[in-house]
Amino acid sequence: MYTPKINQLNDIQDILAFIDRFSFGILISLQGNRIIGTHLPIISNNNPEELFLYTHIALANEQWKEIEGQEVLIIFTEPHAYISPSNYLKEETVPTWNYVAVHMYGQVSIIQDEKEINELMTKTMIKYEPEYYEKWLILSEPFKANMMKGIVPFKIDVTGIEGKAKLSQNKNHQEKENIIKYLNQSQVVTDSLLAEYMERDIPK
Questions:
Q1: Taking the chain, what is the end-to-end CA distance rounded to the nearest angstrom?
Q2: pLDDT, tens digit, for every residue of 42-53?
Q3: Beta bridge partners of 154
Q4: From CA 81, how far away is CA 191, in angstroms rounded?
Q5: What share of the chain is helix, strand, coil (3-state, %, to 5)?
Q6: How far apart are CA 42 and CA 75, in angstroms?
Q7: What's the gap between Cα 102 and its chain centre?
Q8: Under a CB-based contact definition with an 8 Å cutoff, are residues 146 and 114 in contact?
Q9: Which of 36, 62, 133, 153 is buried deepest, with most CB atoms within 10 A?
Q10: How far is Cα of residue 119 from the mean position of the Cα atoms in its chain?
């Protein structure tokens, strides 16, 4: 990912918080000579010293068949927004796009151990809907077993991280304030999330 120094996102805790908040990532790997991707909910062990990502893929999705042992790329992105030059003080300016994104590289291992699989699915349900996990506990064992047969769970040993926060760092204070106001007034819901990240990034 092309990342000028001014846009680098290096703080690992900020990166972990970002991928936890925007955890619907894109898993990219090779299948033969073709690059393929799948959109997946992804959780981490939140350990910067030995970082693992966990997810599962549908059994019918053939991406899993060649993925083990590959170095894959996982992309986390959102929020992002068009930035109008009307926010700048100079007339001769151009529009751009602001965004936050994290790329992670890692080695894939398919999870075979039944206990690990159950732990992964439990953590996933609790993260996204604790109420459903309570319901899951009382569903019939045949139903749950059948559902589990339809997925392939795996973990990714993270070997590289690239973080980028393009938040108009090259603009002056007034222009940044203009952009934040512009984003907060937008009818696009995620624009206000980008404004939130910009507000964290500028000194008060």
A1: 30
A2: 999 999 999 999
A3: 55, 110
A4: 6
A5: 40, 35, 25
A6: 10
A7: 7
A8: no
A9: 153
A10: 21
Question: For residue 204, what pLDDT band results from cuts at 50, 70 and 90?
Answer: very low
In degrees and rounded to multiples of 5, residue 67 shows phi and psi of: -85, -25
Q: What CA–CA distance (Å, rounded) separates 29 from 32?
A: 10
Q: Which two tokens stand for residue 100?
A: 């936050």
Q: What is the pLDDT of residues 48-80, one digit of tens each?
A: 999 999 999 999 999 999 998 899 999 999 999
Is the pTM higher than 0.85? The answer reads yes
User: Using CA atoms, how far apart are residues 185 and 109, in angstroms rounded to an integer?
Assistant: 45
Instruction: Please report which helix (H) or strand (E) contains residue 5, including its range.
Output: none
Helix 130-138 / helix 114-128 crossing angle, nearest 10 deg: 130
Residue 48: phi, psi to the nearest 5? -65, -20
What is d(CA 121, CA 92) in angstroms, rounded to the nearest whole number?
Answer: 53
Residue 200: CB atoms within 10 Å: 10
- Tens of pLDDT, residue by residue over 122-174, are 999 999 999 999 999 999 999 999 999 999 999 999 999 999 999 999 999 99
